[in-house]
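Support request, please re-run this one:
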Amino acid sequence: MSIYAFAEIKNGKVERIYASAKYPSKQRGNLFFDSEKVPDLRKSLDLPKYMNNFYSLVAFRPTHILVSRDVLGGKPLYYNTETLTFSSFKKYFDVECAEVKPGESLKIDYTGRILDRKIVQFEDVFVKERVDLSEAEEKIELALKSFKFKNACLAFSGGLDSSLLASFYDVELISVTANKKEEEWIKKSAESIGKKVKIHVFDENEVKDAVKAVASIIETDNKLQLSIAIPIYITLKFARDMGYKEVIFGQGADELFGGYKKYESLNEDELEKTLLCDVKNIGRSNLVRDTKLSYTLGVRILTPYLQWSIISVAINIPANYKIRRHNGEVTRKYFLREFAKKFIPKDIAYRDKKAIQYSTKTAKLLSKILNKTKN
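Re-run finished. Output below.
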């Protein structure tokens, strides 16, 4: 677990609070949180408007307990007012729990009564406005290059997103796959940007061993979610075994810059709405799953593309610069590919890469394992 707190209640009164924060979360006195910076509790219910990064927190104040979560919902947090229990995982509750919603903050008194609550909306933090594309490139480059990390390696796939980050950061590259062709491409693309990469090749047995553990960690047995989570789980374990406490991932680039296949069939109005919707829901769709893996393995996941400054710029880049249609051909992530050409070879910047569950062959192996189980 990461954040976990519960009250010892006798005769309807709280006698004692037990709480802990396990890395990558932190404790500062009676404040338990997962955030790049220490939350300013004076902001109270308006915290999601001012934090400007992913976070979750439980703060024990003299008259109440404050719980809060970022507007994208990147860090999971659940609670029960009857037992005064708070956790990053649903499985630690003996009774039904509620989820702190993205952008939500609550004040709960020590009898379990909700004193006040507020939800800060995505639009309260990220403003839609016209953007100059040259200025957008400059802001994105500055934010990516100035991204801070400590004891980190980079999860490298040989595709656009991770290759661009690899060109900026002097860190070791690691990769996991069960696909021989992908292994060869990863080595080749690393060499083309002047880097070396350590690759862990996994097989059906390793996927089989991981399935039950991963399903418990991400708290779902949904096949798609499992097929995405398993290679991330194996990557985090690989990094941890190498002595790393942080892994840099390329998450967010597809939502921010139009990387998914589904975008190709949408008209411009539909595309604008879908892109924005996918950014708003990135916590629920992807980040909560990945964060739970991070908490369990004790390895922090770093996402340079999902810095608030980059999100603010990216949501304002017109959709037709993200999905480019020319002479009957469609180029996804056009803006990011053109930007990346300045830093990495064009064949890498323009490589059409499959989703992680397919490129690593995890989805195929998982289907095989599940079919055997059914039979």
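The CA atoms of residues 76 and 211 lie 21 Å apart. The chain has 15 helices and 18 strands.
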